[in-house]
Amino acid sequence: MAKRQTAVVPDYPSILLTPVDWSSGAVFDKLVDALLAPLQTTPLPPPSGRLFDPATDHEIDKRMASLAFCLMEDFVPAFQKPRKVGAPKQEHTRKEWLFPSAHEARLVQIVGALRELLAKKDLPSTNKAVYEELVRILRKNPAPHWRYGKLRKASAFAQAWKLIPKGVKDDPDSHFPARLPQIMPMSSPPDFDAMGPLKGPKVWAATQYMAMYFRHAALERLSQILPSVPSELTGSRT
Length: 238
Fold this sequence. Notes:
This protein is mainly alpha-helical. It has a domain at about 55-70 and about 95-238. It is built from seven helices and no strands. The chain has helices spanning about 25-35, 55-75, 100-120, 125-140, 155-160, 165-170, 200-225. The longest helix is centred in the C-terminal third of the chain and has 26 residues, at about 200-225. It is elongated and about 65 Å long.
């Protein structure tokens, strides 16, 4: 039987844990207030009745910034606070929020590549042979921050393989690319000040830039952590 996996959900109010139709302004306001509650802030101020109210807009800006940072601490590994008790979580066991199956996908990609390479050399390409080749690769090129980088036996990889979801095994590239294109430098952020008060276009631009920034950072970090998909066998097998 596969080992049950659990996820730690932040201690948010129950209203946030059930999908609702938030297109209504009143419902949206309640959801935002619930998100702000853990920050010990007062609810967002009601509309002033004027098209532009600098004081109200500034207050909303500050509270939305606090909300964004609170969410980053919950969901973005780089912003998470160290635990105060117990041993700190090792990097290779941390959850990748943007690419939650990246580590598993890379194992599937490597296993598939090694199976093809062994078959081309008329060598046994069984699961055991593939795992043994992977052990040799990691001995020569360690990947200590990869979730499977510290495994040293074929039997350990066989056990890890059983826990990988079928969807990842069937289509690993959709969970993380086998070969990443060159990661381009991040573009400069939009000129938010020139966009005026916190309105629809400004919020959309900020959200899009943050999403692009975090995706870029995750790709860059994972490209350094995950081992490459092999294109040849180790010298001991050629």
